[in-house]
Each structure stands twice: as structure tokens, then as C-alpha cells.
Design a protein that fits this description.
The structure holds two protein chains of two kinds.
Chain A: E1 7-9, E2 16-18, H1 39-46, H2 57-60, E3 71-72, H3 80-88, H4 90-93, H5 108-124, H6 138-150, H7 153-156, H8 168-176, H9 184-187, H10 190-198, H11 200-203, H12 216-226, E4 242-245, E5 247-253, E6 269-273, E7 287-297, E8 301-310, E9 313-317, E10 320-325, E11 332-340, E12 343-353, E13 359-366, E14 369-373, E15 379-383, H13 398-410, E16 419-420, H14 462-473, H15 484-494, E17 502-503, E18 506-507, H16 509-512, H17 539-542, H18 545-554, H19 571-574, H20 577-585, H21 600-608, H22 634-640, H23 643-649, H24 653-656, H25 681-692, E19 718-724, E20 728-735, E21 740-745, E22 750-756, H26 763-766, E23 779-783, E24 790-793, E25 810-817, E26 823-829, E27 832-843, E28 846-856, E29 863-870, E30 873-876, E31 879-882, E32 886-891, E33 896-898, E34 901-906, E35 910-917
Helix pairs in contact in A: 1-14, 3-5, 5-13, 6-12, 10-12, 15-20, 18-20, 21-25
Chain B: H1 3-17, H2 31-34, E1 38-42, E2 53-59, E3 63-68, E4 73-77, E5 90-95, E6 104-106, E7 112-115, E8 120-124, E9 134-139, E10 152-157, E11 163-167, E12 182-186, E13 192-197, E14 202-207, E15 213-217, E16 226-231, E17 235-236, H3 265-271, E18 280-282, E19 291-296, E20 310-314, E21 319-328, E22 331-340, E23 347-352, E24 358-363, E25 375-382, E26 390-396, E27 399-404, H4 410-413, E28 420-426, E29 436-440, E30 444-449, E31 455-460, E32 467-471, E33 487-491
Parallel strand pairs in B: 13-17
Antiparallel strand pairs in B: 1-25, 2-3, 3-4, 4-5, 6-7, 7-8, 8-9, 10-11, 11-12, 12-13, 14-15, 15-16, 16-18, 19-20, 20-21, 21-22, 22-33, 23-24, 24-25, 26-27, 27-31, 28-29, 28-32, 30-31, 32-33
Amino acid sequence: MQLPRGLLALAGSSLVLVAAHVTAAGFIPTGPLPPGVDEGEMLLNELNCVACHQPGPEAGSRFAPRPGPVLGHGGLRLESTWMGSWLGDHARAKPGTPMPDVMHGLDPGARLGAVEDLTHFLASVQPPGPPGFLGADKARVEIGKERYHALGCVACHAPMERPDGVPDDVWKKAKENGAPLGKLAEKYPGGELVRFLLNPVKHRPGGRMPSQNLTDTEAIVIATYLLAGQVPGLTDGKLPLRTIPGVRWDYFEGHFGKTAELDGAKPMASGETGDLVTTMAKRGEQFALKFTGVITAPTEGDYTFWLTSDDGSTLDLDGARVVDNDGEHAPQEKTGKVKLKAGPHSFDLRFFQNGAGFELKAGWSGPGFTRQPIGAAALEHYGQPMVPLGHQEFAVEAVKAASGRAWFEKLNCAACHALDDGLAPVATGRKAQPLATLAQRTANGCLADTVPAASPRYDLTDTQRAALRQTLSAADQLSRPITPAQEVSRSLARFNCYCCHARDGFGGPALTGKDAWFKVVGEADLGEEGKLPPHLNGVGAKLRSKWLSTLLNEGSKVRPYMAVRMPVFGAANVGHLPALLAAADRKTPLPPEPVVTGRDPKFGRKLVGRDGLSCVACHTFSTLGSMGIPALGLDHMYERLEWDWFRRYLPDPAALRPGTRMPSFWPEGHAVNTEILDGGTDAQIQAIWAWMAGGAKADIPAGLVRARQEILVEKEPVIYRNFIDGAGSRAIGVGYPERANIAFDANQMRLAMIWQGSFIDRSRHSTDRGVGYEPPLGDHLVRLPEGQPFAVLPAPDAPWPAAQTRSPGYKFLGYDLDGSRRPAFRYEFEGTAVTDRIVPKAVDVDITLVRTLTFSGVPATGTLWFRAATGDIQVEKDGFLVGGSVHYRFRGAKAVIVGRELRVPIRAPGELVEEINW
Amino acid sequence: MNISFYAHLMNRTLLGLGLGLGIAVQAAGKAEEESEYYRIITLPIPEGVVLEAGAIQHFGAQRLAVSTRLGDIWFIDGAFQDTPTAANVKFTRYAQGLHEVLGITTKGDGWFYATQRGEITRLRDTDGDDRADVFQTYSDGWGITGDYHEYAFGSKFDRDGNIWVVLCLTGSFTSETEFRGWGMKVGPDGKAVPSVSGIRSPGGIATNHLGDLFYTDNQGPWNGTCWLKPLKPGTFVGNPSGNKWYSLAANMGPRPADPLSNSRIQTEWKKMKEFVPPAVGFPYNKMGQSASGIQNDGTGGRFGPFQNQLFVGDQTWSTVMRVCLEQVDGVYQGACFPFREGFASGCLSLEMCPDGSLFVGGTDRGWGARGGKPFALQRLIWTGRRPFEILEMHVKPDGFELTFTDPVESTSAADPASYQLEDYTYLYRADYGSPEVDKGHPVIHGAEVSADGKTVRLKTDLVSGHIHELKLPGVRSRDGRPLLHPVGYYTVNVIPSK
């Protein structure tokens, strides 16, 4: 077995030392490289030596362009103060930068002048207009921190947070192992860093900082996090608040019935958005959003606002309600009219969602414009812009800028930096000695121990200098042909692919000890394959070249469970890889795909589905989630995979992916399903392949579409103990033949909900793993008070004890079924035993629950109270009307109204009959 | 630099390089051969009955009570027939509406004890129509947040009349409410006493022939593979996620320090007096992928030659495995062997009956299984023909002692080349699962065959803390048969001194 460079096996034991330092992107590569990759040659490429030293025709193909950041109109608006300090001493500002010092030969005074002129020049050619701003927001810093550490930034850059359980040595090494970020807080106005993060390859075409396909929100939060050092300067109040485009949003989770309940609620996340969207919601149920800021009325006049929402929403302008679409409901539209003066008005739009589908649309019309969505153009909010540390207002002086342009040309900056300033192109300056002639000059120029004034000075270590000398001095080194496999290794090293992917035993997150930072999304029980990117052994023969091109050019989303993303390096940088990988990994031509028959897809579908091998138990298909974990989509397989790999993988997945959770359904080549296609291994695998060829349009396999499974209540009551939304984790639902339903909460020991019509859909709990809380079906749902139902109070109007997950002092005893199989619940409360018998009475659609509460034993001290209802309570004939639609009557005690609560004194032993008609 | 840590990394790297070099030891494609000795009889399930069998209890005159994940309890009459048909097997719904019942038992007095997610319920039928009408909460002394992962597996009564409940963590990694990740001992008074911490994701729970309790725990955080673990009051069994509840368990004493991640079980065990190491590892992707129900063969030979051994299901592989345990210096350890494959669904619940019927209940909902059927109830019986198998595997100071169901042919059995031995362990870490690490290939110095051919002493160097994977490709019976399953995996916690 050949050990990779840098790995030293100690004879006779498995004890091995690894000098772990994988090439990091964006700075001078250090440390061991994969076998077959020469460090000197790697440096020649990464330092862009060939930009000046023309390689000969043979060596030329071994190098790929390694351009520096784009300057000029196409660049970024960076802080001028930072530019000056960077040009003054960039090696100190960012140790390890591949940018050489081209001014070291100038005397200090001349150098200062050159730096100042260059700063004026570079500032003069930046894109016109002010830099993009970013509002300071602590919540965003927190989200940004999480995103920075989860999305894959720390694969190349150093992590700044230590996950639980990471030992000291691993943490220390991880912190030291990363491409330096430089002094971001001095360099970037926030909005410019956002622009960069959204499209890094545009600004740094070398692709060493790839695009992570960030969403706008992700770029904003990561930028805020990385620039958090800019915030303290803003908190001293010296900088004025200014308006920032878009509104601020706050995201909440929980059950809300009215938008007013958001007052004082603690947001889980916050940010800014131009459009009033709900995409920041992390789940589809039980959440709320608040959008606040300023809306500018273009002219004085009458305005109309619309809100369409499911569930509730409200809009307040200048503190007054304009549209009231509050409460739980299906999609409905409400409007409001208001007279507005021209100019800014405070804007407060709130929305909450409980169960089922949701929707929010906000529109307005006014003088001179018809109904349209409330868009980014009209919305602003006040905030504290993040401003680079050391920021100074900077005015370009034309004379200095012109001189700077001359320096730019003289110093040959254009050899690495593309510049677009709308003027004639800057000459790329002189060419240095051709590469081939450097063999005799390895102690001269850039490589001299004391670099002469005319040569750029690189921040090289002695080892790196030695490696360069060695490579250059070996005359045939650079003209020796290299194999595709070697070419692959060097490409993967250049782009630091090895920090995420292992190939042929080299690389992978474990090598840098950073595997602890790789996470799985949510709770997919996929083990390491759920969080660590796949190894690339033989990937050129596993993946179709076309798919490889797609994923290299666009990234890949086939592993949605994996937090880290496949980044995008740019076609100019990695467009050659698919062909190269194919050449390296396909030693012999791949066997042809099987000839399939018209009936094969049918059997394939059967095998994949619930009634076959149940691949869908783990694998997703198109937009349909699997029945369990979200393993790779079956709809992509054909598009991604080569047949030859697939046919080898299925019989023994663990051989090609050690540790995979994918079991074999053809162990040792024998089909476990002997019914379909007579248990023929080849026939079954071919049939699956044939079905998969249909991609997302293939016939949907059985088991993936979860149909509603309403529990039908016919002659006798049906009980449903499960997680019921609104009744807790120990809920007991009862559906009665009278079309009345209840849910009892055996944690809080209360009747939690009553509703009419259909009982409940059990499909959530009877398919897949049974995840989550299921709300009731039916209609006219009434929620009864949360918390303990009985309490000993010091006074009749004393506050009711706060609700707890399990009511303290209560004990659930179970239930007995009567002759009609109606349950009577039994429980205890501090010495008082309660029997809670509920009998529905139905007259046509008019339903009354007759609830008989029988108490035995004696309460400890004081008066025992029962809290029957909360809400708007009105006294009516024989009873009370609560919330305008629920009638309560009591026999055996006299109820009293205490604020918004309906309370009933209890005698124990004794009996109380409560009738609820709704 | 922490050398051992890099050793782990290197092992992974080596694993990557070693692709395809390992010989997959899967007792695959064996079902037909196995069926000569152990026959699977599939029970017909009536249309409309979703029998995702979470637990099984035999009672009365060859009746079964089968509880399901959807919350029903079915009484089944006629399940013990040789050719069960829809006409001669009767299903009666004894109870409905319960919450994922993964434990059921009875003392035969008319009361059944069903372990639901949220409680143990004691239920009975008072009017003789085979439908329960009294549902008493026997014990609900643990928390439940509503996470799907919060399963509760209930045992049968132990020798002291306790029911034990093992509580899955909240999700794979955390314990969000009381006693998730604990084993609760529920006494005759219904009080749930937190008695064992360190549980992750159980798949089954039962006693061995001595009445000592075991459960299976599945590969995941702190479990490099699936294990059979002892449950002894006052102990910790490996996953510290639930240790915060020591604060509510005065009987357990102070909370021990958490084990170090990325270590080895053997290392951490030695540091922690509460720690009981797993008794038997089921190597991942070799024996199975998700260990489940457990049953002891106490039938006195009606189930074949493996008396007082444990049978353990594997949900993913739709198999039943066999376990032979022993105690060395008071520590349980032992070997597992492939036993029977080819079940129809993902094996979850096992029930051994006095007549030698092993009922196997299956489901593949949420976790795929080879069997392919969404649910099944099958009966495994011994045909009366004795397979040529390793009967028992015992550890000795200088190797292993193997006994066989039939005498071995002495030339082949005495040749060390008839055996292959590999040892390895797993990372003990907070991360999910582990590759096999610290591999070694101990040399077999000698193989001594007893005069009766029933016993072989293998001389080799053992590594404590390692699973020893023994293959016996060259061993033959006197009539020339190879072993039905020529492999065993012995977990050495302790090497005996004599």
C-alpha cells in the first residue's frame, strides 16, 4: 500500500503520525500535497509566476491562469483607508498572501507617495455611487455565525467557534488551519462584502474563493458576522441613524391567535428584506413575522391597503390600525383606507400562521397608482450602518489618481489584476525571463536571498523557496508529461477540494481535524455520510461527465441533508475537470447501458416502492420526501450516475462507500426479494435503472404520497392517543358518533379542545416516522384554558397559577370505557380524585357536551376552583356566553366571572355538571 | 499532538485506501439453507389490519397479544398452527387508540401491561368480550416532548416483578425532558425509578436465562455500532446525553464526569466506576444495521440446540441473530453469530413461546428493511434437524474455546489455517457511528481439538476492548459439512486471568 506524502506509518502498529496541513485556498499553499503533485510547481502556479515568466509550449499546458482580484468598475468599493494600509504593507495585513511586494525597492518617502497615488487611482476607478450599506444587528451576527460555520466556509477558513466535545488539540489546529480572512472590518463596507459573497468568482476570477450559492439573506448575515468588529464604534451614538432600504423583519415561533400577541415576544431571528415575503420562516406552522420600518407616501392623498393572509395579519401605519385581517382563518382579503401626507410613515405589518397552508400578500394603491404589491422601493427602516473601522471620508484628487495610474502600469500590477476604468487598457508591462531559462537563475530575481529592487518580493518561507528552486533547476521537470490522474490531483489541490473530499486516500475533512464542524441538517440519521462530503475515488467513472459539469458549474443540491454546500468555482477554472476525471478514472471504456424492455420501468417502480424493496423508505423522489430520512433523490440518479457504477454499487454499497447506511438488497449477489422478476439480481437492478431513466417524470413509486387517513367514527367512540396539536404530547383524542370530538391533555389534566364534524387525520403518525403534532380535523374548534383546570386559591379573584408542561400536583389515572365505550377520565389533584365523564348530546347539528365531574376526597386547604373558560364572557339566560359562540351552563355550583375567566367553586366530595353548547 | 487521535484519522484513511480489499462476511443468500433447520411460517393478516408489531406476548392457551405502532392491541388465536390460513387464524381487537405500544406483558391474571410512549397502561377486559374497557395509568414517570424519536420500549416482568422501560433520546443527540436516555425501573407500585443512564436508541429489551436484563442500542452518537448492553441499576451504559437527569435521581448518586469523545469504550470504562461496557457488539454492515428485539431460548430444547442463548432481531437486515454470553470477572461479554435471514419485514419484536415458537414481528415504516413488506408477523420453528454451527464461544486467557453442535473433523479443525482472525474496535465519540479502528490480525498459534470433536481451543493473542471477528472457512464436520454460518464476533471486555 502506498502511503501519501506526509503520512508516516510506524512499523508494526496502526499508530500513525499525520502532519496535517492541507493546501488552503487563497494564499500560498503550505504543507503536504497529494502524491504526484510537486510543491514547487504548485507554487509556480499559485503565485502566478507564469504571468511574467513565459512558459514554453510544453510547460504552458501545465499551468492555469491564477488572476488576482478584479479592480475598477467591475470591482468592489473598498475602504480607502484600508487600501492605503494594504498597499503599504500587505504581507503584514494578511500573512501568506500571494500578492508580492512590488514596491520594496522604493525608498520610504517614494513608497509613501506611490501608495497614496495608487490609493487615489484605485478609489477613482471604483464603481460609481456610494458603497452598499448594511445595518448592524446582533441577531444577524448570531445567525451569521451559525451559517459561517455550517455552510462550508470553515472548510477553507479557520473556524471561530468550537463545537461541544472538540478536544483542545483539534481546536487549536483547526483555528490555525485556514486561509486568512485579512482585516475584513477595515476593508469592507458591509454591502460590498455582501456583493462579494454573492459572487466571489466575479471579483476574484481565480476561483480560489468559490461561490457558496448563498441567498441574499445568507450573504447579509455572514457579512454582518464577519464585520461584527465594526459594530462597537457604532454604539457610542456618535454616528447618526440613517435610513436603510427595506424593512426589518422579526421571526417568531409559537402558537399565536392575534397579532397583538407579538408585543413583547422574543424573535428567534431578525433581518432586513426589501419585499414582504415569508421565506424567512423556518417551518410551515406555528410561526409569526413582524415587518417594521417606514413607508414613504409619494404624494398626499387617499391610499388603500390590502392584506390577504392565512392565518391572521394586521397593518398599522403611524401607530393606527389600517387593515385588520386578524385571527385564525383560511386565506381572506381585507382592505383599509387611510389619508396620508407625502413622506415617511411608520410601518408595522404582522402576520402569523398556525396550521395547514399559509399565505401573505400585501398591496396598496394611491394617488396616481393602481393596486400593486408593497415593494422594496417604498420601504425603509432606520438602522446603524456598519462602517469600516478607521473609516475616513476620502476625496479623490485627479492629479494623484493620474500618477497612481502610472504607478499601476510601472509596477506591472496588470499582470495579475484585470482593470476596467473606461480608459485605454493598462499595458501589462515588461515580461521577465522565460520560465525555461530560470534553471540557471534560481538564486536570482524573485528567488534571490535578497530580492533585487526590480523584482517582486514574495512572502516565501525557506522551504517554499527551496521547493521552487528545485523544481526550476530540474531541467526536464516541467516538460515531463503528466498523467490525467496527476492532473486531477493538482487541480483538486489548487482549489482545495481536499479540504472536503478525500480521493485515493488523501484529504477529506478528517485530515485537517475539521470534520467536527461538518453538520447534518436537522435530524437526518445518516451518520458521517450525512455530513461529510463524499469521497472522490473513481468519481470520474461514477458520475456522468455532463452531471459533473453541472455540479461544478452550478453547485449541487442532491444532498439536502448535508449542511456544507458544493461550491461553484467557475467554468474557467474547473471546466476542464469532467474530461480530466473521466480520463483518469475510466481505465477501460465503460460497458454499455443495458438494453431495457418496455416493461422494465414498471418492475423498477415496483421494486423501488413500498411494496418492493422500499427504497423510498429513505430516498426522496422529486419534491416528495421519503418515508424516513432524506437520502439522495431517486429522480436524479439516472442523470447523475454511470450505469457501470450503479450496477456495482447496489449489490454491495458498503464496498464503494464504507460506513454507508444503505443496506444491500442483493447480499452476495442474491436478491432478497425473490418474487419480482423471479429474484433475478441483474434483472432487478436493470429494472430499477430503467425506471430511474424517467427522472422526475418517472411514475411515482408507491408509498411516497401521503394521503389523508381520516379516522372515521361510526357506531362507537374512537380513541386516539398521540401528539395532538393543542393538546400536548400525552393527548387523548376522542371522536364520538354524535360528530363531536374532544382532546384531553393528560400532561396538564385538562379538557384541551372540543370540535365538531370530522375527528382527526392520522396520516402524519401512520406514515414515515410519525413526526409532529397533528391538529384536529372538522370545524368549530374551541380551545379551552391552558394549564391546570383546578386550583386552590386564596381569594376568588386571585391570579390563576401559570401553565406548566405537566400540571404540578396532578396525577393521571387512566380511563374506563362505559357500555357505549365512552371514556371517563380519572385523575387526582392533591388528594382529590376526579372522574371526568363526557357525554355528547346531539340534536340535529346542535351539539352539547354534558360533562360530569365527580370529586371525592377533600382539598388540602381553602376553596377549590375550576376554571371553565377564558375569553370575552357575557352572562346569558341560565349561563354564560364565551367568545360569542360557546354557551356554558353549570349544575351543582354557581360560576363567577373573574376578569376574562369563568370560574366555578368546587365542593369535594361532590359533583359538578358542565354543559358546553357550541 | 494527540497521537492517538491522529491514529484514528489514519485508520480512516487506511480504510479509504483499503476499498474492496475486505471480504464481505455476510451470511447472505442463506435463507434456503437455513430453512432446512429453522422454518419461517407467515401468519395471514386480515385485510385492513396494520400489524406493525411493536411487541408480542403469548398468554392463555396458545394465544398471542400483539401491540402495534399504530396503537392497537390484537388478540390472535390460531397463530401456532402449522398451516395458518385466513380461515383458521382469528384476530380480535382488544384495544385501540394507544400511543405506539412497544412493550406488552401479562402475569396471566387478566391484566395486560402495555408500554406506550407516554406511560405504561394496565388494561383489562371486565365483561368478557375480549375488548379492554379499563385503562389504568400504571406509570408515567418520564417526560415526552413530542419528538418522534422519543420511543419507549417496555420489558416483560423481571424476577422482582419490575417492568423496565428504556427511553430513547429526544432526537438522535439530546435529552430535552426528564429521563430521555434512561432506563426506568417500574416497581409493583408503579413508581418509575431512574436506574440506568447512558441510553441512546433502544430496539428491544429482555432478560437472559439468569434473569439479568439486556437491551439493544443502535449505532449513532457514542455508539460506533449496534450493541447488546446490560441494564443494571445504578450504572451508566455509554451515552452521556441524558446525564443531566442525575440531578433528579438521588438514588443514582452524583452525576459522573462525562466520558471523553473520540476515545475508546475500554479507556473510558476504566475511568468511570458507573460505566458498564456493552456486552456484545453487532458489527455494522456485517451482522446487521439496527439491532432490535431480544428473546432468550428457555424452552428446554424445543427451539433446537441453542438453549439459554439470546436471539436478537435486526430491523434493517430482516434477520434474527444469535448471542452467546458469559461473565468474566463479573463483566458480561460474548459472541454473536448470524442465525436466520429472510424475514418478510424489518424485524422489531421477538417473542419466544414455551413450545419453541419464536414469533417475529416486523415493520419497515420510517426505517427501510430488506424484507420489503410494510409489516409482518412470522413464526420461526426448529425443524428438528440440527445445523452444524458454533454452539458456544468462550474467552480464555490465551484464546478462545469453541464448542460445536456436531463433532468437527479433527484434521481441518486442528489446522490454524482453517481460521482467520481479525480484531478491531470503534471510536467512542459524540459523533454518529464510527468506522472500525485499531485493526489487528492476531496470529492463531494453535488449534486443539478435543477427543469428542465437540470442542476446539484456539490459541491466540487477545486484545481487550476489541471485537474479535473469527472466520472458520476450513472447519468441517465429521461428515464433511462446512459450518452453516462460519463466522462469529466476540467482544472481549475482559481477558480472564485463568
